[in-house]
């Protein structure tokens, strides 16, 4: 099956026929190379995040204060706060994206795969740009080199600044798409702009919630309930996605060159996602009772 997946030719020239796209074609023609590139970027993202968390803990916090932590993604906030080397959430997202890319590739729609893969890679590239800047700033702040005093960032402001960063990357990718015309770059544009919009919305919600006059205990209790229910809901959504993908692939499998091998791959991926979803639901329900 690996050789069959790797042998499918893909034409990367979408609009303007650029003179040389051999490197991009290499990844688009080989699903495993495409997955490997994203996985490396994803792992570096986690390593950079944990390194920044250690720098913040070891001295940068004397100049920069983030009351709700430096991690903006609520899915990884606990892991980053505790600086966990091994994270269940890390592997959960890793396997989910790998399965998603495999399924989209097997749909035999090269344009869709180029866009989706571009979204994941583009977000990681933008993330790394932000990570490098934060690592340099925290490194100097830890040694008080060129940094004096202390500043505190409200969580809504951190989200707002992140939104601006991703918006700028999105505009940059959009200009590249207009000049080059490749769907991979369009995917990177959509990924960065969608994340910028999400952080902007989260920032507005967070800032609005600061005006509420709830007690600290009620706020913490409500946050815990929301967090637990988010895990349960995320598990249910993953199960629904797995079922939808399975039955959709079941309907289009007869058109494939090897329906049996295709459904075997789809069944394996859907089963893995379903199993992970059940674990998430159990963990969420246990957390609710605690």
Can you characterise this structure?
The chain has 290 residues and is mainly alpha-helical. It has two domains: 2-211, no CATH class; 216-290. Helices cover 75% and strands 1% of the residues. The chain contains ten helices and two strands. It has helices at residues 2-6, 22-28, 31-57, 77-81, 88-106, 110-142, 155-180, 183-209, 216-252, 259-289; strands at 64-65, 151-152. Strands 1-2 form a two-stranded parallel sheet. The chain starts with a helix and ends with a helix.
Provide tags for this entry.
290 residues; mainly alpha; two-stranded parallel ribbon; 10 helices; 2 strands
SSE map:
Layout: H1 2-6, H2 22-28, H3 31-57, E1 64-65, H4 77-81, H5 88-106, H6 110-142, E2 151-152, H7 155-180, H8 183-209, H9 216-252, H10 259-289
Parallel strand pairs: 1-2
Total beta-strand segments: 2
**Helix-strand pattern, N to C?**
HHHEHHHEHHHH
Estimated share of beta-strand residues: under 5%
Individual helix count: 10
Would you tell me the structural class of the helices and strands?
mainly alpha
**Average predicted local confidence, pLDDT:** 79
Helix content: over 70%
Note the overall shape.
Answer: globular
Q: Which radius of gyration do the C-alpha atoms yield?
A: 21 Å
Order of strands, main sheet, comes to 1-2
Distance between the termini: 45 Å
Q: Tell me the count of domains.
A: 2
Oligomer: single chain
Contiguous low-pLDDT stretches (5 residues minimum) are 12-19, 213-217, 219-226
Please summarize the sheet with the most strands: 2 strands, parallel
């Amino acid at each position: 099956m690996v050789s069959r997946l790797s042998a499918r030719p893909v034409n990367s020239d979408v609009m303007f026929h650029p003179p040389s796209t051999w490197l991009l074609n290499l990844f688009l023609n080989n699903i495993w190379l495409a997955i490997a590139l994203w996985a490396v970027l994803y792992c570096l993202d986690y390593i950079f995040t944990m390194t920044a968390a250690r720098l913040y803990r070891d001295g940068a916090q004397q100049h920069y204060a983030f009351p709700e932590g430096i991690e903006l993604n609520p899915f990884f906030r606990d892991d980053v706060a505790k600086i966990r080397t091994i994270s269940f959430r890390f592997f959960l997202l890793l396997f989910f994206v790998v399965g998603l890319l495999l399924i989209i590739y097997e749909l035999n729609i090269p344009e869709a795969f180029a866009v989706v893969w571009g979204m994941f890679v583009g977000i990681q590239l933008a993330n790394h740009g932000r990570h490098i800047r934060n690592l340099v700033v925290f490194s100097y702040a830890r040694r008080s080199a060129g940094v004096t005093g202390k500043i505190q960032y409200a969580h809504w402001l951190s989200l707002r600044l992140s939104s601006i960063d991703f918006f700028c990357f999105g505009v940059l990718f959009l200009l590249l798409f207009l000049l080059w015309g490749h769907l991979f770059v369009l995917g990177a544009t959509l990924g960065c702009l969608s994340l910028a919009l999400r952080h902007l919305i989260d920032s507005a919600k967070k800032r609005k919630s600061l005006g509420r006059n709830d007690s600290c205990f009620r706020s913490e209790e409500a946050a815990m309930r929301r967090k637990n229910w988010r895990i349960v809901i995320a598990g249910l959504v993953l199960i629904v996605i797995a079922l939808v993908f399975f039955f959709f692939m079941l309907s289009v499998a007869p058109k494939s060159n090897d329906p049996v091998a295709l459904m075997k791959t789809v069944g394996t991926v859907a089963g893995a996602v379903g199993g992970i979803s059940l674990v998430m639901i159990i963990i969420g329900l246990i957390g609710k009772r605690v």
